[in-house]
């Protein structure tokens, strides 16, 4: 039978072996949750931009709407505003070719920086989050 000091030593070794995995799991959950939050915010911003574009807003107004929605987000943000004509063909330029009955298309691309060392270990320093929203032009 083992004495109490040997059992405490075994528990300390087991704990030391388990802690890195628990930290990895905790940091992974934090990073993934933060990324999902940002993904949802980008989706909402793309929808707000499409709403602005479908209501007759210019390309610059649409981009500004998206950027205003995402003011607190660090990282690189790219907003593209395009459209399709009522016949279904692509527009050359949103500002000149957007017409009632067509579809406004807003694409938001965001390079999300990880906040813990776990994310870069498995997927690079950033991950690209891309959302596209479409709405009929009124």
Query: Globular, elongated, flat, extended or rod-shaped: what is the shape?
Result: rod-shaped
Number of domains: 1
The H-and-E topology, N to C, reads as HHEHEHE
Quick one: biggest sheet?
A: 3 strands, antiparallel
Strand content: 15-25%
What separation lies between the terminal Cα atoms? 82 Å
Structural class by helix and strand composition: alpha+beta
Mean pLDDT: 89
What is the CA-atom radius of gyration, in angstroms?
A: 24 Å
Q: Strand order, biggest sheet?
A: 1-2-3
Number of helices: 4
Element layout with pairings:
Blueprint: H1 4-54, H2 59-69, E1 76-84, H3 94-97, E2 103-113, H4 118-123, E3 126-136
Helix pairs in contact: 1-2
Task: Describe the structure concisely.
The chain has 138 residues and is an alpha+beta fold. Helix content is 52%, strand content 22%. It is built from four helices and three strands.
Please explain how this structure is put together.
The structure is a single chain. With 138 residues, the chain is of the alpha+beta class. The chain has one domain (4-136). It has helices spanning 4-54, 59-69, 94-97, 118-123, and strands at residues 76-84, 103-113, 126-136. Strands 1-2-3 form a 3-stranded antiparallel β-sheet. Helix 1 packs antiparallel against helix 2. The longest helix is centred in the first third of the chain and has 51 residues, at 4-54. It starts with a helix and ends with a strand.
